[in-house]
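User: Fold this one for me? It's DUF1826 domain-containing protein.
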Amino acid sequence: MPADPDTLFAPSPDVLPDHVRIGADADALATIHDPDVTLAIWQRAPLIPAPDLSEMPAIRFAAPAGQVADRMAAYWATVAPQPWHAAVTRDVARLAALYATLAAEARVEVRLERITGNGCWKFHADYVALRLISTYWGEATQWLPLDADAETPPRGLAAGDVGLFKGRALAGDRAIIHRSPPIAESGGDRLLLVIDAEWEQPD
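Assistant: Here's what I get for DUF1826 domain-containing protein.
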């Protein structure tokens, strides 16, 4: 029986949408400056093996990018040292510097947290300009192509990957749609990093 021509030329679900760029080094993140790009991904191997997150402190602060490592060290000083603390501190400081350069921001807002529930499990776009997200451990952030419908399966970053997400403040209705993977039923957890421009505090 002859093949259906519509099937022969149907786009593969693995074809990368035009508004997403993926690369194997940090330079991939700079593609976010392309007006058509709403998600830039630096694919990396996982940075750390399975971490002990039982004493993970709630880390959230704003600081000049060059002071991020010192601020991280102050949080680690409040809990028992873990072998992965130093590697994560170096990486967060590096990613904060990259974000500050790409977003043209002198100060950054850093959030590193253990997530055990579903978090922001509904698909949404952030009301920011640019947001950097990386999952050091566990399931990583899921995203949808711009032309997605209710039947479109989500795509996902992998643990270790770095994603630079364009939000509504910069991309309007074309902002990248994404969510935290729902993990509440699995009993798993995640170690999630989010870096933003410093949030304006209300008067």
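One thing worth pointing out: The radius of gyration is 18 Å.
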